[in-house]
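Hey, sorry for the delay on this. The queue was backed up all week. Below are the sequences that define the complex (chains, strands and the ligand SMILES where applicable).
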Amino acid sequence: MKTAFTFAEEGLLHDTGPRHPERPDRLRAIRDAFEAAGLKPPRLEAKRASRDDLLRIHTAEHIDTIEESCRSAGHYPDADTVMMEASWDAALLAAGSAIGACEAVLDGAFDSAFNAMRPPGHHAERDHAMGFCLFNNVAIAAKWLTDARGLSRVAILDWDVHHGNGTQHSLYDDPSVYYISLHQFPHYPGTGRAEERGEANTNLNIPMAPGVSAELWLEAIETVVVPTLETFDPEILLISCGFDAHKNDPLSDQNLTTDDFAEMTRRIKGIAGGRIVSLLEGGYDTQALGESSVAHFRALQE
Ligand SMILES: [Zn+2]
Protein backbone atom coordinates (compact mmCIF):
# COMPACT_ATOMS: atom_id res chain seq x y z
CA MET A 1 0.00 0.00 0.00
CA LYS A 2 1.15 3.50 -0.77
CA THR A 3 0.98 5.49 2.46
CA ALA A 4 1.79 9.19 2.68
CA PHE A 5 3.29 10.97 5.66
CA THR A 6 2.80 14.63 6.57
CA PHE A 7 5.16 16.39 8.94
CA ALA A 8 5.98 20.09 9.17
CA GLU A 9 8.75 21.88 11.02
CA GLU A 10 6.17 24.57 11.90
CA GLY A 11 4.52 22.00 14.18
CA LEU A 12 7.62 22.21 16.39
CA LEU A 13 7.24 25.97 16.81
CA HIS A 14 3.93 25.70 18.67
CA ASP A 15 5.87 25.81 21.93
CA THR A 16 3.65 25.10 24.90
CA GLY A 17 6.58 24.96 27.32
CA PRO A 18 8.76 22.08 28.55
CA ARG A 19 6.35 20.89 31.24
CA HIS A 20 3.26 20.80 29.02
CA PRO A 21 2.34 17.24 28.00
CA GLU A 22 1.39 18.34 24.45
CA ARG A 23 4.85 19.66 23.54
CA PRO A 24 7.07 19.86 20.44
CA ASP A 25 9.12 16.85 21.63
CA ARG A 26 6.17 14.67 20.66
CA LEU A 27 6.76 15.38 16.97
CA ARG A 28 10.53 15.06 17.36
CA ALA A 29 9.98 11.62 18.90
CA ILE A 30 7.91 10.53 15.90
CA ARG A 31 10.44 11.92 13.42
CA ASP A 32 13.34 10.24 15.26
CA ALA A 33 11.50 6.91 15.55
CA PHE A 34 10.81 6.91 11.80
CA GLU A 35 14.48 7.59 11.15
CA ALA A 36 15.64 4.91 13.60
CA ALA A 37 13.30 2.41 11.93
CA GLY A 38 14.70 3.29 8.51
CA LEU A 39 11.28 4.46 7.35
CA LYS A 40 11.44 7.00 4.54
CA PRO A 41 7.82 7.43 3.58
CA PRO A 42 6.67 9.63 0.71
CA ARG A 43 5.92 13.06 2.15
CA LEU A 44 2.84 15.12 1.49
CA GLU A 45 3.46 18.83 1.68
CA ALA A 46 1.67 20.43 4.62
CA LYS A 47 -0.91 23.04 3.66
CA ARG A 48 -2.85 25.69 5.49
CA ALA A 49 -6.60 25.61 6.02
CA SER A 50 -8.51 28.53 4.56
CA ARG A 51 -10.98 30.52 6.65
CA ASP A 52 -13.79 28.81 4.70
CA ASP A 53 -12.37 25.40 5.65
CA LEU A 54 -12.45 26.35 9.34
CA LEU A 55 -15.93 27.88 9.04
CA ARG A 56 -17.42 24.52 8.03
CA ILE A 57 -17.02 23.58 11.72
CA HIS A 58 -16.10 26.64 13.76
CA THR A 59 -17.81 29.96 14.42
CA ALA A 60 -16.21 33.14 13.03
CA GLU A 61 -15.90 34.39 16.62
CA HIS A 62 -13.92 31.32 17.62
CA ILE A 63 -11.53 31.67 14.68
CA ASP A 64 -10.98 35.37 15.46
CA THR A 65 -10.46 34.69 19.16
CA ILE A 66 -7.86 32.00 18.46
CA GLU A 67 -6.00 34.24 16.01
CA GLU A 68 -6.02 37.10 18.50
CA SER A 69 -4.94 34.85 21.40
CA CYS A 70 -2.03 33.50 19.34
CA ARG A 71 -0.91 36.93 18.13
CA SER A 72 -0.95 38.40 21.61
CA ALA A 73 0.15 35.18 23.38
CA GLY A 74 -2.82 36.11 25.51
CA HIS A 75 -4.55 34.15 28.17
CA TYR A 76 -7.21 31.92 26.72
CA PRO A 77 -9.88 30.82 29.22
CA ASP A 78 -8.79 27.16 29.22
CA ALA A 79 -5.79 26.52 31.42
CA ASP A 80 -4.70 23.47 29.39
CA THR A 81 -4.67 25.20 26.03
CA VAL A 82 -1.59 27.33 25.56
CA MET A 83 -1.09 29.63 22.56
CA MET A 84 1.73 31.78 21.25
CA GLU A 85 2.38 33.47 17.95
CA ALA A 86 3.58 30.39 16.04
CA SER A 87 0.56 28.41 17.26
CA TRP A 88 -1.65 30.12 14.67
CA ASP A 89 0.37 28.84 11.71
CA ALA A 90 0.75 25.37 13.27
CA ALA A 91 -3.02 25.18 13.82
CA LEU A 92 -3.79 26.22 10.23
CA LEU A 93 -1.29 23.62 8.97
CA ALA A 94 -2.69 20.82 11.14
CA ALA A 95 -6.23 21.49 9.90
CA GLY A 96 -5.28 22.16 6.28
CA SER A 97 -3.05 19.10 6.05
CA ALA A 98 -5.91 16.93 7.29
CA ILE A 99 -7.82 18.12 4.22
CA GLY A 100 -4.71 17.71 2.05
CA ALA A 101 -4.29 14.07 3.11
CA CYS A 102 -7.97 13.38 2.39
CA GLU A 103 -7.61 14.95 -1.05
CA ALA A 104 -4.53 12.84 -1.85
CA VAL A 105 -6.29 9.62 -0.83
CA LEU A 106 -9.61 10.50 -2.47
CA ASP A 107 -7.90 11.33 -5.75
CA GLY A 108 -5.89 8.09 -5.67
CA ALA A 109 -2.40 9.58 -5.29
CA PHE A 110 -2.06 7.44 -2.12
CA ASP A 111 -3.98 4.54 -0.60
CA SER A 112 -3.69 5.94 2.90
CA ALA A 113 -1.98 8.68 4.91
CA PHE A 114 -0.69 9.47 8.39
CA ASN A 115 -0.35 13.09 9.53
CA ALA A 116 2.10 13.74 12.36
CA MET A 117 0.86 17.27 12.99
CA ARG A 118 0.02 19.28 16.10
CA PRO A 119 -1.86 20.89 17.79
CA PRO A 120 -4.32 17.99 18.00
CA GLY A 121 -8.02 18.64 17.39
CA HIS A 122 -10.70 16.34 18.76
CA HIS A 123 -11.52 18.32 21.93
CA ALA A 124 -11.99 21.61 20.03
CA GLU A 125 -15.66 22.60 20.00
CA ARG A 126 -17.37 24.79 17.39
CA ASP A 127 -16.99 27.85 19.56
CA HIS A 128 -14.12 27.16 21.93
CA ALA A 129 -10.70 25.59 22.28
CA MET A 130 -10.04 23.03 24.98
CA GLY A 131 -7.79 20.14 25.97
CA PHE A 132 -4.72 21.24 23.94
CA CYS A 133 -6.90 21.58 20.79
CA LEU A 134 -7.48 24.81 18.83
CA PHE A 135 -9.30 23.66 15.68
CA ASN A 136 -10.97 20.30 15.20
CA ASN A 137 -8.80 18.88 12.41
CA VAL A 138 -10.72 15.64 11.89
CA ALA A 139 -14.15 17.29 11.88
CA ILE A 140 -12.91 19.97 9.47
CA ALA A 141 -11.63 17.23 7.13
CA ALA A 142 -14.90 15.28 7.39
CA LYS A 143 -16.94 18.38 6.54
CA TRP A 144 -14.67 19.15 3.60
CA LEU A 145 -15.27 15.61 2.33
CA THR A 146 -19.07 15.92 2.55
CA ASP A 147 -19.57 19.59 1.66
CA ALA A 148 -16.75 20.36 -0.77
CA ARG A 149 -16.35 16.90 -2.32
CA GLY A 150 -19.91 15.61 -2.06
CA LEU A 151 -19.25 12.37 -0.16
CA SER A 152 -22.30 10.98 1.59
CA ARG A 153 -20.63 8.45 3.93
CA VAL A 154 -17.54 9.42 5.92
CA ALA A 155 -16.45 7.49 9.03
CA ILE A 156 -14.30 8.67 11.92
CA LEU A 157 -12.74 6.15 14.29
CA ASP A 158 -11.33 7.88 17.37
CA TRP A 159 -9.11 5.59 19.47
CA ASP A 160 -7.47 8.36 21.45
CA VAL A 161 -7.93 7.44 25.12
CA HIS A 162 -9.99 10.61 25.69
CA HIS A 163 -13.45 11.09 24.24
CA GLY A 164 -13.53 13.43 21.24
CA ASN A 165 -16.20 15.73 22.62
CA GLY A 166 -15.66 18.38 19.94
CA THR A 167 -15.95 15.90 17.09
CA GLN A 168 -19.07 14.31 18.55
CA HIS A 169 -20.79 17.63 19.17
CA SER A 170 -19.87 19.10 15.77
CA LEU A 171 -21.21 16.12 13.82
CA TYR A 172 -23.74 14.65 16.24
CA ASP A 173 -26.83 14.91 14.05
CA ASP A 174 -25.05 14.64 10.69
CA PRO A 175 -26.15 11.37 9.02
CA SER A 176 -23.27 11.55 6.52
CA VAL A 177 -20.53 11.23 9.15
CA TYR A 178 -20.37 8.19 11.45
CA TYR A 179 -18.32 8.87 14.59
CA ILE A 180 -17.07 5.96 16.71
CA SER A 181 -14.97 6.56 19.81
CA LEU A 182 -13.20 4.15 22.13
CA HIS A 183 -12.08 5.93 25.27
CA GLN A 184 -11.46 5.57 28.95
CA PHE A 185 -14.56 6.43 30.96
CA PRO A 186 -14.88 8.03 33.40
CA HIS A 187 -12.05 10.31 32.33
CA TYR A 188 -11.42 13.74 30.81
CA PRO A 189 -13.46 15.40 29.27
CA GLY A 190 -16.45 13.66 30.90
CA THR A 191 -18.53 13.11 27.74
CA GLY A 192 -18.79 9.88 25.73
CA ARG A 193 -21.52 7.75 27.28
CA ALA A 194 -22.82 4.77 25.33
CA GLU A 195 -26.32 6.23 25.18
CA GLU A 196 -25.15 9.30 23.20
CA ARG A 197 -26.17 8.03 19.74
CA GLY A 198 -27.09 11.14 17.69
CA GLU A 199 -30.27 11.95 15.76
CA ALA A 200 -29.45 9.47 12.97
CA ASN A 201 -27.73 6.85 15.16
CA THR A 202 -24.40 7.81 13.60
CA ASN A 203 -22.58 8.33 16.88
CA LEU A 204 -21.22 5.39 18.81
CA ASN A 205 -19.32 5.57 22.08
CA ILE A 206 -17.47 2.56 23.47
CA PRO A 207 -16.45 3.50 27.01
CA MET A 208 -13.62 1.52 28.61
CA ALA A 209 -13.24 1.32 32.39
CA PRO A 210 -9.86 2.39 33.78
CA GLY A 211 -7.32 -0.44 33.81
CA VAL A 212 -9.04 -2.85 31.42
CA SER A 213 -6.98 -5.23 29.29
CA ALA A 214 -5.76 -4.46 25.78
CA GLU A 215 -7.69 -7.54 24.68
CA LEU A 216 -10.93 -5.71 25.44
CA TRP A 217 -9.94 -2.92 23.02
CA LEU A 218 -9.07 -5.43 20.28
CA GLU A 219 -12.31 -7.32 20.89
CA ALA A 220 -14.32 -4.10 20.62
CA ILE A 221 -12.63 -3.34 17.31
CA GLU A 222 -13.41 -6.84 16.02
CA THR A 223 -16.95 -7.29 17.31
CA VAL A 224 -18.36 -3.74 17.31
CA VAL A 225 -16.28 -1.28 15.27
CA VAL A 226 -15.67 -3.39 12.17
CA PRO A 227 -19.26 -4.70 11.78
CA THR A 228 -20.70 -1.22 12.43
CA LEU A 229 -18.45 0.37 9.85
CA GLU A 230 -19.06 -2.42 7.34
CA THR A 231 -22.78 -1.74 7.63
CA PHE A 232 -22.32 2.03 7.24
CA ASP A 233 -20.00 1.34 4.26
CA PRO A 234 -17.99 4.59 4.33
CA GLU A 235 -16.24 5.96 1.25
CA ILE A 236 -13.26 6.93 3.41
CA LEU A 237 -12.19 6.27 7.00
CA LEU A 238 -10.54 8.94 9.14
CA ILE A 239 -8.73 7.93 12.33
CA SER A 240 -8.41 10.30 15.27
CA CYS A 241 -5.17 8.61 16.13
CA GLY A 242 -4.16 9.16 19.71
CA PHE A 243 -1.60 6.82 21.23
CA ASP A 244 -2.45 7.71 24.84
CA ALA A 245 -4.18 4.38 25.55
CA HIS A 246 -0.61 3.02 25.63
CA LYS A 247 0.30 1.36 28.95
CA ASN A 248 3.17 3.84 29.49
CA ASP A 249 1.10 6.96 28.91
CA PRO A 250 1.13 9.34 31.88
CA LEU A 251 -2.37 10.77 31.26
CA SER A 252 -4.39 7.56 31.25
CA ASP A 253 -4.81 4.14 32.79
CA GLN A 254 -5.02 1.69 29.88
CA ASN A 255 -2.81 -1.22 28.87
CA LEU A 256 -2.20 -1.15 25.12
CA THR A 257 1.27 -1.98 23.83
CA THR A 258 2.93 -0.68 20.70
CA ASP A 259 1.96 -3.93 18.92
CA ASP A 260 -1.68 -3.46 19.85
CA PHE A 261 -1.79 -0.22 17.82
CA ALA A 262 -0.47 -2.16 14.83
CA GLU A 263 -3.05 -4.89 15.42
CA MET A 264 -5.95 -2.41 15.68
CA THR A 265 -4.75 -0.86 12.42
CA ARG A 266 -4.69 -4.26 10.66
CA ARG A 267 -8.18 -5.09 11.86
CA ILE A 268 -9.75 -1.95 10.36
CA LYS A 269 -7.80 -1.91 7.12
CA GLY A 270 -10.57 -3.55 5.11
CA ILE A 271 -12.91 -0.61 5.79
CA ALA A 272 -13.53 1.87 2.95
CA GLY A 273 -11.40 -0.18 0.59
CA GLY A 274 -8.38 0.76 2.69
CA ARG A 275 -8.84 4.51 2.03
CA ILE A 276 -7.65 5.64 5.45
CA VAL A 277 -6.46 9.04 6.65
CA SER A 278 -4.98 8.90 10.14
CA LEU A 279 -4.49 12.14 12.09
CA LEU A 280 -2.34 12.36 15.21
CA GLU A 281 -4.22 13.34 18.38
CA GLY A 282 -2.72 12.54 21.82
CA GLY A 283 0.08 10.34 23.13
CA TYR A 284 2.27 11.77 25.89
CA ASP A 285 5.00 9.23 26.59
CA THR A 286 7.37 10.25 23.83
CA GLN A 287 9.03 6.84 23.45
CA ALA A 288 5.69 5.01 23.28
CA LEU A 289 4.42 7.68 20.90
CA GLY A 290 7.34 7.34 18.50
CA GLU A 291 7.33 3.53 18.48
CA SER A 292 3.54 3.27 18.21
CA SER A 293 3.51 5.74 15.32
CA VAL A 294 6.03 3.56 13.46
CA ALA A 295 3.99 0.41 14.20
CA HIS A 296 0.77 2.09 13.05
CA PHE A 297 2.38 3.44 9.91
CA ARG A 298 3.91 0.08 8.99
CA ALA A 299 0.54 -1.63 9.46
CA LEU A 300 -1.04 0.93 7.12
CA GLN A 301 1.72 0.25 4.59
CA GLU A 302 1.55 -3.59 4.71
ZN1 LIG B 1 -6.06 11.99 24.35
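The CA atoms of residues 258 and 292 lie 5 Å apart.

I'll add it to the shared folder too.

S.
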